């Protein structure tokens, strides 16, 4: 059975085609800059090299048409007929408290999804546009929606509520939702397999560290807390996001700077000009580490702030879970920065966390332990695979239906 995974942004369509008999990735690609003068289409299959094209693509429907045409290409394609695609799995950023699991698309689901536009105005409308584009191309093929927020919906109310007037929750659904849920779910499940125990018997802390980052505390396969909140802004220091700050700083800055008086501008500053780039002028961890090695003090400070913020969250989740069996590092920084992993875990020996420095320094795209043999809490690096997780969820929903 073949499943097509689609992830639509405001001006992009990312896709992966899987043969679920063996979970083999057959083809993948990305259409960027949709609606602009120049659009870019990069794609690849398991048997062909990357192909790059520059062209003009007006909308998401045209992008999906291009992708299907490419998948059907006699020379470089991966399917001979569109009917080979049994289902399409869509990534949707925000499901609010309306969706606690992946769902089969129907008119009722579409209406409920439209109700979530106001809570994620930059992402959900784009996701929805992609869903409609796919529906036009695949009128008889079932679509499944997989939500970034769904895995976190097991949090208890005392963890997801904010201590604001309760009416804001009732009227505007203001609460902690969490994001990166598909990634956290994937690596938590792989960690259980790696540890050789059922997820229901384990306590895992998952650290998704990339340009956008979050941590989750997973008890018996269910999230009890996560670092991101109503939006993807709070939590640890990120590439361009501030993470946790004193909320009173916002009105203070709005009074001091004329350019920050509008909600849009202050929001842009916190999301796009803060975090690592705000401190060091750079958001790419490889560049920051390189500058740090040259004695750049701001680069060093940025790394220290990031690692300290991750360390604090790990400590708080160890308290919330009453210990842990494993800690997982994943995503761009988590998988590739031995320095960040080392600095985060350094000084946590009394909590049962011991890093094998030599194992940690090895660069690899393989799943692996980086803790010492006598470490009470096992530390792992597990590359995330959100596309495969979406394909699995899609298949599971179809089987239930």
What is CATH's topology name of the largest domain?
Nucleotidyltransferase, domain 5
Q: Strand-residue fraction?
A: 15-25%
Oligomer: single chain
CATH-defined architecture of the largest domain: 2-Layer Sandwich
Number of strands: 14
Return the structural class.
Answer: alpha/beta
Report how far the terminal alpha carbons are from each other: 16 Å
What integer is the average pLDDT? Answer: 93
Total separate domains: 2
Helix-residue proportion: 25-40%
Choose one word for the global shape.
globular
Q: Cα-atom Rg, whole angstroms?
A: 22 Å
Low-confidence stretches: none
CATH H level, superfamily name of the largest domain: ATPase, nucleotide binding domain
Enumerate the strands of the largest sheet in spatial order, edge to edge or round the barrel.
Answer: 5-4-3-2-1-6-8-7
Biggest beta sheet attributes: 8 strands, mixed
Assigned CATH class of the largest domain: Alpha Beta
H/E series = EEEEEHEEHHEHHHEEEHHHHHEHHHEEH
Number of helices: 15
Task: Characterise the protein shown here.
- The chain is an alpha/beta fold.
- The protein has two domains: 2-147, Nucleotidyltransferase, domain 5 (2-Layer Sandwich), CATH 3.30.420; 197-386, ATPase, nucleotide binding domain (Nucleotidyltransferase, domain 5), CATH 3.30.420.40.
- 38% of the residues lie in helices and 21% in strands.
- The chain has 15 helices and 14 strands.
- The protein has helices at residues 60-71, 107-114, 124-137, 157-160, 166-172, 181-195, 249-256, 263-272, 275-280, 285-293, 297-321, 331-336, 338-345, 357-361, 386-400, and strands spanning 2-9, 12-19, 24-32, 39-45, 48-55, 85-92, 103-104, 143-147, 203-208, 214-219, 222-226, 326-330, 368-369, 378-381.
- A hairpin with an 8-residue loop joins β13 (368-369) and β14.
- α1 crosses α3 and α11 (297-321) crosses α13.
- The protein is globular.
- The model has no long low-confidence stretch (mean pLDDT 93).
């Amino acid at each position: 059975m073949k499943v097509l995974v689609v992830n639509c942004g405001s001006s992009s369509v990312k896709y992966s085609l899987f043969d679920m008999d063996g979970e083999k990735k057959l083809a993948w690609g990305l259409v960027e800059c949709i609606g602009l003068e120049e659009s870019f289409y990069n794609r690849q299959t398991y048997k062909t090299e990357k192909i790059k094209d520059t062209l003009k693509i007006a909308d998401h429907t045209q992008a999906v048409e291009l992708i299907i045409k490419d998948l059907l290409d006699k020379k470089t394609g991966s399917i001979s007929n569109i009917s080979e695609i049994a289902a399409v799995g869509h990534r949707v950023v925000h499901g609010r408290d309306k969706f606690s699991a992946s769902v089969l698309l129907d008119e009722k689901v579409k209406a409920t999804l439209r109700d979530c536009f106001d809570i994620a105005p930059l992402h959900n409308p784009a996701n929805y546009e992609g869903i409609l584009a796919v529906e036009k191309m695949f009128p008889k093929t079932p679509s499944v929606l997989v939500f970034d927020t769904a895995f976190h919906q097991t949090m208890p109310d005392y963890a997801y509520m904010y201590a604001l007037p309760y009416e804001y929750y009732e009227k505007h659904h203001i609460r902690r939702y969490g994001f990166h849920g598909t990634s956290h779910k994937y690596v938590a499940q792989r960690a259980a397999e790696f540890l050789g125990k059922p997820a229901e018997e384990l306590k895992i802390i998952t650290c998704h560290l990339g340009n956008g980052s979050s941590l989750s505390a997973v008890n018996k396969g269910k999230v009890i807390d996560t670092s991101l909140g109503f939006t993807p802004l709070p939590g640890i220091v990120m590439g361009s996001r501030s993470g946790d700050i004193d909320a009173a700083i916002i009105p203070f800055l709005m009074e001091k700077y004329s350019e920050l008086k509008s909600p849009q501008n202050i929001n842009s500053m916190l999301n796009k000009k803060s975090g690592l780039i705000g401190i060091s002028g750079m958001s790419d961890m490889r560049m920051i580490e390189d500058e740090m090695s040259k004695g750049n003090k701001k680069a060093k400070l940025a790394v220290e702030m990031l690692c300290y913020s991750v360390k604090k969250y790990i400590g708080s989740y160890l308290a919330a879970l009453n210990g842990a069996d494993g800690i997982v590092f994943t995503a761009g920084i988590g998988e590739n920065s031995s320095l960040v992993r080392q600095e985060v875990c350094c000084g946590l020996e009394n909590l049962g966390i011991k890093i094998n420095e030599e194992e940690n320094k090895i660069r690899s795209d393989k799943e692996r332990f980086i803790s010492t043999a006598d470490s009470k809490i096992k530390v792992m690096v597990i590359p995330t695979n959100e596309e495969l997780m979406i394909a699995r969820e899609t298949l599971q929903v179809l089987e239930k239906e």
